[in-house]
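dumping this here before i forget
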Amino acid sequence: MSAKNLQIGSTVHVLNTTLRGRSRRDQWEEWTIVGETSKSWIAFLTALLPSYQRNPESYKNSVIKIPKNFEGSTYSAPSKVGYGISVALTPQAVEDDVWMHYHAHQVRERVMSLHDVDLLRKIAEILGYDAP
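structure:
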């Protein structure tokens, strides 16, 4: 999926890492596309949508803009608070992030501790690493 497939009313998910004590999956919040500019989709937190609809101007600093020309399933948006915001355009992108969060470091550790050169060469080949 790409941002070109979005439309007003579409759902995306935004990673909220300030929600401490929750599982990674529960840190992904549902947002709704509420508007657009010529270059971006404008998204707002779905849980607060009724408030936004009553007075959108008072929430203008609480929206996220997603470039319409973005190709991919997860977009890292710049933020006014100094850190990037991850936006998943599909439910599968959320699931992929959750899997990576919980398992990538374990896979990395197991590869680092391999002593089987044939297996390590196969992994290098899969990764496209052309060892001399």
